[in-house]
Amino acid sequence: MKEDARHRLEDLLDREIEVARTLAATLDAERAALTGASPQAVEQQAAEKTRLLADIEKLEDERRAVSVAAEQGLPGARVPRGTSIAATVAERWRTLMEVIAGCRTANEVNGYIINLRQGQISQLLGIVRGTSTLTYTPQGKTFAKALRALAKA
User: Fold this and answer.
1) Residue 151: per-residue pLDDT
2) Cβ-contact 2, 78 below 8 angstroms
């Protein structure tokens, strides 16, 4: 029973690694879309990212249940302390954690790009609306300068 559960756990980890690698590729595509000019591409990549995250969550729930049955002490598996981990399971676990760490970093970069773009859009809207903007003096000090609107609707 334990051996069969361990093989199921290895299979689940392999599937989770595959989905995580697909997520990594999707995050790269999302970064490209964020720096491009197509809002539809951004939406498409964001939807794919959401779908993949749901798949990973489902696989994680399944993996936790199987790791208990296989008596494999993976973090978050709720298996008693001191339970050993098969070498094959441990290797897959390390691979999964490396891929997920890369995904986390890529997602943080994408979030930074989104925040930067939002700031740029806010500045542009401020110029178009004629609201005051923050500018710098030759000494490097900031002051608000009122601008007149470029257009009125």
Assistant:
1) 56
2) no
